[in-house]
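task queued by scheduler; priority normal; single chain, no ligands, no partner chains; default sampling; output format set to structure tokens
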Amino acid sequence: MLIDKPWIPVLDGAGRRREVSLRGLFEQAGEIRMIACELPTQTFAILRLALAVLHRITGGPNGEASWQALWRDRRLPLTDLTDYLDEFRDRFDLLHPRHPFYQVADLRADKENTYGLERLIADVPNGMPFLTTRAGPGMESISPAEAARWLVHCQAYDPAGIKTGAVGDPRVKKGKGYSIGVGAVGNLGGVYLEGTTLRETLLLNLVPIAPNWQRSDERDLPVWEREPQNAAEEADATRGPYGLLSLYTWQSRRIRLFGDTGGIKGAMIAIGDRLDWQDRHLLEPMSVWGRSAPREREQKRTPIYLPRPYDHTRALWRGLQTLLPPPLPSAGKPPQRLSATVLQWLARLTRDGVIGQDFQARPHAVSITYGTQQAVIDEVFSDTLTMNVLLLVEDSPLRTTAVDASADAEAAVRALRGLATNLVRAAGGPDDGGDADRAAERAYAVLDQVFREWLARLGPESDPAAERAAWQDQVRQVVARIGRRMVEAAGPAAWVGRTKEDRNGREVHYSSFQAETWFRRDLAKALSMTTSTDQEVPA
């Protein structure tokens, strides 16, 4: 029984790890630092489940005043939560004979097969058991608590591809359930706000249902309040989505776990409910969004928005402009991107004076990269930034400063990449871009921590121009130091140099001296506000 038995991993205020029940998650929210699962995507999926319960209890909340009453006392409606969970306690039973949690009790295939746990557990690469620590006895059985965590994760992030065909699903052909895409949350560029305690985290992400803010209607219900599902896709009349309750508990798959209280030994996973994310930004508050040019051309209308997963090759600060609310658009022109509603909500609270301007926000970004026709999980992305809440306000000078500072770093690293390329040409080496990539990686590795510390220091008393100049000084020192060492390591051949044709067909002499001269020029252009020279910084 997930309401009363521990299954959700958490960290407490002292950094100790333990497991709590769903009821305990709310009751102990003031003492818990965070939900802390095996994967950040698992944490995100369980947080959404908890938020669905809390939204249902608070009735939205139905506006800013209702939310403020909760925030002012940093409290959760525990009595209402207890009554609600008790009312639906049977629907949270993982092994219930008629309506097991997030499953279909009588789910079966036409041919009774034996199912392993690799279908359920996301960190087991199919066909590549040497890449997991779970090979052997570790895959024979898992506890019901662990199975519950992976069950919630599977509904949210299961890869696409052909699934087992379930008896009773009219979509099944020749025993196969053909792909309906990845789990619903796998399409999102997920983001949530972390507080100093789990109670703060829950409240910060509890975006009210209000006109022109978050849309919903009376048909919006979590899955445990609807009739138990069967193998077929749920009818449009009840499926929706009609609001965030159905989105937070969306059943992307039909699943049946095999086992008992002593251990779960297998799982059947079939296709579930399809979900088209187009223009759901007024329903789904925990994703970034961007305009879809292909769909706008196809449907001949604008704007059309789709969720945007993060670029997993870049730290979050390097794409800061994709996370923060964009500048206010010109009249009549729809913005190219939209920030997550949870961030817009916190910005609104800041503008209204509900949240103090000294409040430190901690946006946490989560998304998945799928490979091979989205049938396997390639990589999980997770990153957090600490920043002053004013950075979330669209017309804030601090926001502009932070975004410009990120661009400053990119421009400086481009200059460093140019130096690496020119040194290779001077030495007569292969101009394949490998040296430039390695130089950029070294620079970003150092700048990553420097930027995070600089960003966390910004506050309402900061002078935007002075802070950006100080940042450019730091970038120049870091990048110049790396560049100097590259020149020193280039060797005699690069010092003598050689003459080659450039892209325009002109004869150019490349040498380490000339490469360094060009680098200094490009760095000065990239960091025009800097007041520093090429001083060394500690390694």
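post-processing summary
- Residues 535-539 have pLDDT under 50 and may be disordered.
- The chain has 16 helices and 17 strands.
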